[in-house]
Design goal:
alpha/beta; Chemotaxis Receptor Methyltransferase Cher, domain 1; Rossmann fold; three-stranded antiparallel sheet; 11 helices; globular; binds S-adenosylmethionine
Length: 286
């Protein structure tokens, strides 16, 4: 059998880089700019190895023409996505969610006589974000939580990340921003690992969803709050515009979108009202 990944043979040509990056973009919206060739090459080297292929050209043709390509595409998404996340990430945003957005939404729902809450962690990675949302919901509603019809949808394009989310077991580092009381009340410790308690896990519904799948994304309707943090940075402006317009439609009037603390919707959407919270921004659908 050929000894693949010969350092010369396995280099990605500029042409193949363009073909692969267009294919990835077409299927996911994830965009590798011209200066990201080395990163893409590095991330795909393991896929070459896994498929026993000698070069990136063959890998491209397999993705493009092999009838089994959809399975490999999912493995490709696992390789090209960045799944970095943590519990209580960007604390000022979590505080804005806990102290402002969520109480406002709850009040609004109560005025309408509906004890229903629908939240979405769009690009949930290994689950840290939706479980954080669940913990905050419990902290806000306390014993009244059981009176509410609550669902936190959590979706991602990476099967690998979703598998970790389902296991819901984390190390100390991932929990570094979690206050000690919260850690004690919502996690079951087993040696160096911490598992999210069942009450919080039961609030979260994990599912595979590619944001490029417009038909399925359209079906995600009626949300009060959407977290789509640190996802848009991987898209180009055209993909960002499309997706953010869709997220606007996915929200209920009065609902909030939170994006990453270093991200902005400047030149992407004018539909939302920008709301300033201490140390954080929210995008409100009026
Ligand atoms: C950096 S993580 C952010 C996780 C979490 N939202 C946070 O802020 O901590 C970005 C996630 O977006 C997901 N993602 C990227 N492109 C996607 C797409 N087209 N459809 C669905 N999820 C996508 C990745 O798989 C990854 O898990």
């Amino acid at each position: 059998m050929a000894d693949f990944l010969d350092p010369v043979a396995s280099q990605m040509s500029d042409e193949t880089f363009l073909l692969l990056r267009d294919l990835i973009y077409e299927h996911s919206g994830i965009y590798f700019s011209d200066n990201k060739k080395a990163q893409l090459e590095n991330r795909l080297s393991l896929r070459l190895k896994a498929n026993n292929l000698p070069d990136y050209d063959k890998y491209y043709y397999m993705l493009k023409y092999d009838p089994q390509a959809s399975r490999e595409l999912k493995a490709l998404f696992d390789s090209v996505t960045t799944n970095e996340t943590s519990f209580f990430r960007s604390p000022p945003q979590i505080q804005a969610f806990q102290e402002k957005a969520l109480p406002e939404i709850i009040q609004h729902r109560l005025e309408k006589g509906e004890k229903v809450l629908r939240l979405w962690s769009a690009g949930c990675s290994t689950g840290d974000e939706p479980y954080t949302m669940g913990i905050i919901l419990k902290e806000v509603l306390k014993d009244r939580l059981s009176e509410w019809d609550v669902k936190i949808y959590a979706s991602d394009i990476s099967e690998k990340a979703l598998k970790s989310a389902r296991a819901s077991t984390y190390n100390e580092y991932t929990l570094r921003s979690v206050p000690p009381e919260i850690k004690k009340n919502y996690f079951i410790q087993n040696g160096p690992l911490f598992t999210v308690c069942d009450e919080i896990r039961s609030l979260v519904e994990l599912q595979y969803l590619n944001f490029n799948d417009a038909k399925r994304v359209k079906l995600m309707r009626g949300f009060d709050i959407i977290f789509c943090r640190n996802v848009l940075i991987y898209f180009d402006d055209a993909a960002k515009k499309n997706f953010v317009a869709q997220l606007y439609d996915n929200l209920n009037p009065g609902g909030y979108l939170f994006i990453g603390h270093s991200e902005s919707l400047h030149n992407i959407s004018r539909a939302f009202k920008l709301v300033h919270f201490p140390g954080a921004l929210g995008y409100k659908k009026e």
